[in-house]
Amino acid sequence: MGKRIATVVVTLFALVTGSALAADPAVKGPFYDAVHSTSAVTYKDASTQNWTWDRGAITAVSSSSLTLKRKDNQSVTFAITDKTVVRNAGATYAVTDLKVGDAAAVISQSGNAVIIRNIKGADAPAGGTPSPIEGPAFQSVNGTVSVLYADGTSQSFDFTHGQITAAASGSVTIKRPDG
Questions:
Q1: How far, in whole angstroms, is CA 75 from its chain's centroid?
Q2: pLDDT given for residue 24 in this prediction
Q3: pTM of this prediction?
Q4: Strand 75-88 relative to strand 112-120: parallel, antiparallel, unpaired?
Q5: What backbone torsions phi and psi does residue 6 show, to the nearest 5 degrees?
Q6: With 0-12 CB in 10 A as exposed, 13-18 as middle and 19+ as buried, what is 16?
Q7: How many domains does the chain have?
Q8: Is 1 a member of any domain?
Q9: Which terminus of the chain faces fewer neighbouring Cβ atoms within 10 Å, N or C?
Q10: For residue range 27-60, what is the model confidence (pLDDT) as tens digits?
């Protein structure tokens, strides 16, 4: 068997939204049926940032705000700023492409929508040219995530971001970007 080196990019919010939207209900990752999470992320330069993630149906959208109704029946409103990015299927869209009734995940800081992504629905934006962005996990080293589920239960866990340098006997060694 050849030597394999895999880069682990624990793209926290991509994992969150991907697992929460798993097409097969039998496949239930740690974010299956998650409606809200908060995270404290440490970056390569030793700085830290707090992020919030919410998933739900868009009930209102304008050039200045977006409101989601989560599966736990909580409504949350986010400010739309000039830095808000709308992403779907790897491409960037305008806030005007969002429609009431579409499902979406919002990654926010201090009540401001930073990234609106994983939009689902009949009118969901599609067909754009995929392009990279530097999301919340870019240059992250580690962090703690607290997750709230639609049924009211919650859990917390830690993550580490880096390159797998060894894997054997149920153990993984990760080289973090900060050395």
A1: 18
A2: 54
A3: 0.79
A4: parallel
A5: -115, 140
A6: buried
A7: 1
A8: no
A9: N
A10: 678 888 999 999 999 999 999 999 999 999 999 9
